[in-house]
Design a protein that fits this description.
The protein is α+β, with helices and mostly antiparallel strands. It contains three helices and three strands, in the order αββαβα. It has a three-stranded antiparallel sheet with strand order 1-2-3.
Length: about 100
């Protein structure tokens, strides 16, 4: 049965996730910039959406989503600071000293 990328994302059920066709491959985009300052992608090296079953796409998306959630939780454990677009901790801003 034919399916579309939108149906994969709908089945996963997370609005931060998107499935996009690249040139000769597909990739998931995780965009949680506003809340957790996290943006990342994960490639799936297949030419056509139909090269994998819908169930396999859902599994791939859920696995990627779990990795992103783990990054968010790890960052919150460190000190609650935000993470960079690459998923790495941003350096803490130095405290400003009041001048006299």
């Amino acid at each position: 049965m034919a399916f579309k990328a939108k149906s994969v994302i709908k089945a996963i059920g997370d609005p931060r996730l998107e499935l996009v066709a690249g040139k000769g491959y597909w990739y998931f985009v995780f965009n949680d910039i506003r809340k957790n300052n996290l943006f990342d992608t994960q490639s799936v090296m297949v030419m056509r959406l139909s090269d994998l079953s819908q169930e396999r796409w859902i599994e791939e998306g859920k696995d990627f989503l779990a990795k992103m959630q783990q990054k968010i939780e790890e960052q919150m454990k460190i000190d609650g600071s935000k993470v960079s677009r690459l998923g790495n901790p941003l350096p803490a801003k130095p405290e400003r000293k009041e001048s006299k």
